[in-house]
Amino acid sequence: MIHKINIINRAMTPEETKRMDLGFEELSIEEGVALESSERISLVALEGSTFIGGASGLAFKNGDTFSGWFLLKELFVEKAYRSKGLGAKLLKATEAQAASIGVKHIWLWTSGEKALRFYHRHAYQKFTEMKNWYSDGSSRVGLRKDL
Fold first, then answer.
1. Domain, as residue range, for 57
2. Cα dihedral sign, 134-98-146-66
3. What CATH number does the domain containing 67 carry?
4. What is the pTM of this model?
5. pLDDT at residue 34, as a whole number
């Protein structure tokens, strides 16, 4: 017998979040899919001991095997070091590190013409665009590249 069910607008407790995560794991196992996890790859650019840029993202795994996909979460270069090739070096180094563990595809979210031009120069292709994502009316663009 099902009692009255209430739907409440509030944050989940840590215990509720754990139960939901466990429920997704149980569903994956029922469907014969290895559990998903990720490992972070991070690269830092330093001038001496000063941070001037970095790149970071997640390599996804199913069980102990990398799925072949990498989400580039951040690629940042301090303003004084932009347009000097550092972003390209960070991107290439990130791609190489990801490829070394079996990644075959990289994807990311970006916006702005400058960023789009940068990634297009490095063979990234648009796979989706969410128009009017930002309050100024600009789009959020999904890009991907096969390594």
1. 35-146
2. negative
3. 3.40.630.30
4. 0.84
5. 85
User: Is there a domain that residue 20 lies in?
Assistant: no
The tokens describing 126, both together, are: 């648009």
pLDDT score for 121: 97
Domains contained in the chain, number: 1
How far is the C-alpha of 94 from the C-alpha of 73, rounded, in Å? 11
Residue 124 burial by Cβ neighbours in a 10 Å radius (0-12, 13-18, 19+) = buried
Q: Which structure tokens are listed for 138? A: 């600009």
The rounded Cα 68 to chain-centroid distance in angstroms is 13
The pairing of strands 105-110 and 140-146 is: antiparallel
Q: 87: closest CA among 50, 115, 107?
A: 115
Type of residue at 80? A
Secondary element (H or E) of residue 67: strand 65-77
Q: With left for phi above 0 and alpha for psi between -120 and 50, is residue 66 left, alpha or beta?
A: beta
Is there a domain that residue 13 lies in? no
Residues in the chain, how many? 147
Residue 17: inside a domain, yes or no? no
The stretch 44-67 carries a mean pLDDT of 93
Q: Are strands 50-62 and 125-130 parallel, antiparallel or unpaired?
A: unpaired
